[in-house]
Structure prediction request, 499 residues.
Amino acid sequence: MEILIPAAILFLFFVATIIAFASRYKRCPSDRLLVVYGKVAGGKSANCYHGGAAFIWPVIQGYQWLDLTPLPIDIRLEGALSKQNIRVNTPSTFTVGISTEPGVMENAAERMLGLGLAEIKELAKDIIFGQMRVVIATMDIEEINADRDKLIANISTGVEVELKKVGLRLINVNVQDITDESGYINALGQEAASKAIAEAKVKVAQAERDGDIGAAEAARDQRVRVADANAKATDGENTATVEIANSNADRRMKEAEAERSASAAEKVKAAQALQEAYAAEQTSEIERAKREKATQQANIIVPAEIAKEKAIVDAEASAESVRRTQMGEADAVRLDKQAEADGLKAVKQAEADGLRFKLTAEADGTRLKLLAEAEGVEAVLTKKAKGFTDIVNSAGNDKQLASMLLMIEQLPKLVEEQAKAISNLKIDKITVWDNGKGKDGKGSTADFLSGMIGSLPPLHEITKNAGIELPEFLGKLAEQEAAPKEVPADDEAPEKTEK
Prediction:
């Protein structure tokens, strides 16, 4: 008994160990990835298994599953800029899933372990949005609209590279109808439809022309054959008539011979028989002439009439063919011109819209610029008016004093203008006849220069003309009295001085 108890304990321990080891042995189904993390071989962060099985060591290792279910993602991309700076709307449907490619599975284990399908879907959606904008920015509108295979190939190449970085793979891409805000794609479709309609109308016109020509040729052949049959029928009728006449003549000749033989016994009867014979011969000649006439008509007139009718039919058929051909060519040219005019109209409309948008933008810019300038001028004038108001207030509301202050502010400019009065005078030579010193000790030359300077308008007179009297501390106007001029003595000879 004592031996059985330890044996039972050992057996139970062995069974428990086997059950524990069996519970840690995980088999990976085909629709999942088994990610074993913790202490793994090779210094990696995790081992990924697709199919097969792996033993998960207790305590030092853990495991999780990644679902390989395909995720359909609707991408409603709107307003993406193309290579021509035209915004397009590209609705599409992408199908993605976790990759089973070695090296990419580890990226999925590092970046998406523990995320649900909805979170993985949002992550892939953000990546696809960005890559689609990049791809569309490298393509023209014509390529995006016409070459769907190239668009899908570019999107697949760009998107799959980015998806592999997070462990995903692109399964399928389905691009739906592509539209743009400016209507450029619709214009391209209308242009293609117009060309197809024009080509179809040209083909229809050509088919109708060929049908009409064939019908005309068939009608011509019918009329020729009918005329030929009628001519042959007339010829047969004439031949039959001639044969009947010959038969009648032979019959009458035989009757005459019989009568003449019967009346041979009697002279009178013989003469009458002879007369009747002559009459029969005359009738025979007349009938023979008619037969000859009918023969000539059948041989000459009837073929000429048939040839005439055939020539008329051929001319009518040729004229009808030419008319049909010219009508078809005219319709084709008209349709081509109409299609070209429609295309040109669409291009002109697009150019007019672009010019209108450009002029509107320039007008808005000009208006804003003038508005800013007006606001600046208004601010300057407002500040200047405020400054004038402060000056008037500082002068105790004395308007005369305020005006004098403003005029004093402008004195440098007034003096500058006064100096300009003689600055531009060009005096090449001045001749003064100086006869010596005058009464006050000044010579003629000094009087000339002082008179020339005195001819300038005094500052007080300038301000007085403006209605302002300067204060006395700026100087006063002295009354100038005309000084008597002394007449030089006769014995004083004038001296000539040149300056």
